[in-house]
Design brief:
Strand content: under 5%
Structural class: mainly alpha
Region (Disordered): 1-22
Keywords: Membrane, Transmembrane, Transmembrane helix
Shape: globular
Order of helices and strands: HHHHHHHHHHHHHHH
Oligomer: single chain
Number of domains: 1
Biased composition (Low complexity): 1-20
Low-confidence stretches: 1-19
Transmembrane segments: 99-119, 131-147, 159-178, 185-214, 226-244, 294-311
Radius of gyration: 20 Å
Largest sheet: none
Number of helices: 15
Protein name: Membrane protein
């Protein structure tokens, strides 16, 4: 991969890993893929970034986000310094909106629906629900390994081990209960949690639980609390803008190490999905009557992810073949 002299603070480069621009006819497919990401983000312990990897959207979404962030900064600088908005316009034109808009729409719709379905399901049937998701994440570990530019090395294993331990400890933190969080705390919490959305292996919902914001976010959405939702959106935008460019640089220039760390984060995050836990997220021994059902459900989740990965690989192969034919 050619190195780019542009620093993360400058204009983003077009990802060499991104697929060719799509068409509006594929919008329903992209919306469905975005919906899977939204569903993942509603469940503590599941990372939307992991699902983005599985359905083949990760590089494209990070590249698009970097262009949007650059456009926002260029717009502000252009207005303040009276340079005009031409640079911002150019950056926005680099975004594949035919891909991004359907994905975002699918994410938003399914996220809201999932907060009212999957989250309550996890509370009423925690053991089987965690079992399914644990199987899905375990099977997904193969995805970042397959995205490494070269075969895993000893140092990659070390990076993965450190990341796995960090994720294990983070997901083991006890939940915090905050009934009426201050708006500044909502902004801060959103800025932290949003970055877990884009990093595979880290769950934004799990971080919200640790920060005591998971239940208040649900209540604010149900109650249409404009101030709370606005503060959360502001924090998400600020946090994402501060991080996405660094992540894009890592994907371009340190992809091997980045994928090793992602693999470790995904392995360590399985701690949050151990089926048997107490109310404070402490791990419990398996219950004899549940073991058979848990194994079956975990295997089912793994098969579902395996099918998604196989489908995405075939889709990507067909897209590459079509691009080669067109050229």
């Amino acid at each position: 991969m050619a190195h780019d002299a542009t620093s993360p603070a400058d204009a983003p480069t077009t990802s060499t890993l991104a697929a060719p621009r799509t068409t509006w006819s594929r919008a329903p497919l992209h919306a469905a893929r975005g919906g899977l990401i939204g569903a993942a983000e509603s469940v503590p312990g599941i990372s939307g970034g992991t699902v983005a990897l599985v359905v083949g959207l990760y590089d494209e979404l990070i590249a698009a986000a970097a262009h949007v962030v650059h456009a926002g900064r260029a717009f502000v600088v252009g207005v303040v310094r009276r340079r005009g908005t031409a640079e911002a316009t150019v950056a926005l034109r680099r975004v594949d909106w035919r891909l991004v808009l359907p994905v975002l729409a699918g994410m938003a719709v399914v996220l809201v629906l999932s907060l009212r379905t999957l989250a309550p399901l996890l509370e009423s049937h925690p053991v089987p629900t965690r079992a399914v998701f644990a199987g899905m994440i375990a099977a997904s570990v193969a995805v970042p390994l397959g995205m490494m530019p070269s075969r895993p090395r000893v140092q990659d294993g070390a990076y993965a081990l450190v990341a796995a331990v960090a994720a294990f400890l983070l997901t083991g933190l006890p939940p915090v209960a905050i009934e009426e969080p201050s708006l500044w705390y909502v902004v801060l919490g959103a800025a932290i949690a949003i970055n877990a959305l884009v990093v595979p292996g880290l769950s934004g919902s799990a971080l919200l639980v640790v920060l005591g914001l998971y239940v208040p976010v649900q209540a604010a959405l149900d109650g249409r609390d404009a101030a709370f939702v606005g503060a959360f959106a502001l924090g998400a935008v600020l946090g994402f803008a501060a991080f996405v460019r660094t992540l894009q640089w890592l994907l371009h220039e340190r992809r091997q190490v980045t994928m090793a760390v992602v693999t470790g984060l995904m392995v360590g995050s399985l701690r949050a999905l151990w089926p048997w836990q107490d109310d404070d997220r402490g791990l419990l021994a398996p219950q004899q009557g549940d073991v058979g059902q848990v194994v079956l459900l975990a295997a089912t989740g793994a098969v579902v992810v395996g099918a998604l990965v196989a489908w995405e690989r075939r889709r990507a192969a067909r897209a590459r073949a079509a691009a080669d034919t067109a050229s």
